[in-house]
Automatic annotation (TrEMBL):
This is YHS domain-containing protein. It comes from Tautonia sociabilis. It comes from the Bacteria.
């Protein structure tokens, strides 16, 4: 998969795919990290930030930063409960394994290409 060129205009990284260890996801920047992040406990669930600033942001703005939208179904998901897929170091969150599997087969159907013409 490392040599696969996606329709998004990026090359798949060797570590693209399901992310089992959520401690390696900054849930503020929605980024897959190389090392575990800083845990933030909230309502009996654990969220992660990559640094002290991100961890503080989760505590200050939980309604905005602990939720995501499943790119396949459009469902609102809690980042602590969701399944995660990493693509080009970006984290995507899913409500079910079937939703994540559909995304994995063809991410370009669900993710817009990066804006190469910034304003």
């Amino acid at each position: 998969m490392a040599s696969l060129v996606l329709a998004l205009g990026t090359t798949a990284a060797a570590d693209d795919g399901p992310v089992a260890d959520k401690s390696r996801v900054c849930m503020v920047q929605d980024a897959v990290m190389d090392k575990p992040g800083i845990p933030v406990e909230r309502g009996g669930k654990t969220y992660y930030g990559c640094c002290a600033m991100c961890s503080e942001m989760i505590a200050k703005e939980p309604e905005r930063l602990t939720r995501a939208q499943d790119p396949v179904t459009g469902a609102d998901v809690d980042k602590a409960d969701a399944l995660v897929f990493g693509l080009g170091r970006r984290a995507y969150y899913f409500e079910s394994e079937s939703s994540r599997a559909r995304f994995a087969k063809n991410p370009a159907l669900y993710v817009s290409p990066p804006d190469t013409n910034p304003r």
